[in-house]
Write a structure and sequence with these properties.
The chain is about 45% helix and about 15% strand. Strands 6-3-5-4-7 form a 5-stranded antiparallel beta sheet, sandwiched between helices. It has about 220 residues and is an alpha+beta fold. It folds into 2 domains: about 150 residues, Transposase IS200-like (Alpha-Beta Plaits); about 50 residues.
Length: about 220
């Protein structure tokens, strides 16, 4: 059993508190041109450096705002791009992915909501169901499946099955996902509404209920 990592960095920082609720976005391989993504990432890095260098109060609030600005620009680019793969708009492909998302519901997480868009996916999952009353999250080692491993399982199995269905080979998903942990119930509610209204924001439908591949636990909408 290996030590659980709660932080790592690739192109983006990944902060993964044990038992948190996570908003995760993952996308098709090649869904954004490298130049577009680099422009968004460079702008993000510049804002982060400035925030750390400024001597201001409430720095964490500013960092959170920068992260949200980054994500919304990234998501808008995925909506607007005319080129690149759109495999997920095919019903059978989306259904394969849905099956993988639901496979671990009640095992590694509570599945709060998801939305499968033509070239990317948003999910909101609560991993606290893995924590029993007698477990010690502060212990160096204990039984827990972290978000990066959960995503490897979902993306790996779905890529294999979808590629087989499409009779294609090669990369299906981009290896890195965007993830953000929820600090409050308000954050959770905001991400639920962001997720279900994503197809409306993209101009695909006028009512979120019209989008076939949106799921939400309705208890979350009433909170």
């Amino acid at each position: 059993m290996s030590k659980i990592k709660t932080f790592y960095r690739r192109n983006l920082p990944h902060i993964l508190p044990i038992g948190a609720t996570f908003f995760i976005t993952f996308r098709l391989y090649g869904s954004l041109p490298v130049a577009v993504l680099k422009k968004i990432n460079d702008k993000y890095e510049e804002k982060i450096k400035k925030a750390y260098s400024d001597k201001e109060d409430f720095k964490q609030e500013r960092l959170d705002a920068i992260e949200l600005e980054y994500f919304e620009e990234f998501d808008d680019a995925l909506h607007q791009i005319k080129t690149g793969p759109k495999w997920l708009r095919e019903t059978n492909v989306a259904q394969i992915l849905e099956k993988e998302l639901k496979k671990y519901d009640g095992v590694f997480y509570k599945l709060i909501t998801y939305c499968i868009m033509p070239n990317h996916v948003h999910i909101l999952i609560d991993t606290s169901i893995q924590l029993s009353e007698d477990c010690d999250p502060d212990a160096e080692y204990f039984e827990y499946t972290q978000v990066d491993d959960i995503m490897r399982r979902i993306k790996g199995a779905s890529a294999f099955r979808i590629n087989r269905y499409l009779r294609r080979s090669g990369s299906f998903w981009e290896s890195e996902s965007y993830d953000s942990y929820m600090r409050s119930e308000k954050d959770v509610r905001n991400r639920v509404y962001y997720t279900i209204y994503n197809p409306v924001k993209a101009g695909f439908v006028s009512d979120w209920r019209e989008w076939s591949f949106t799921y939400v636990c309705f208890g979350e909408l009433s909170q």
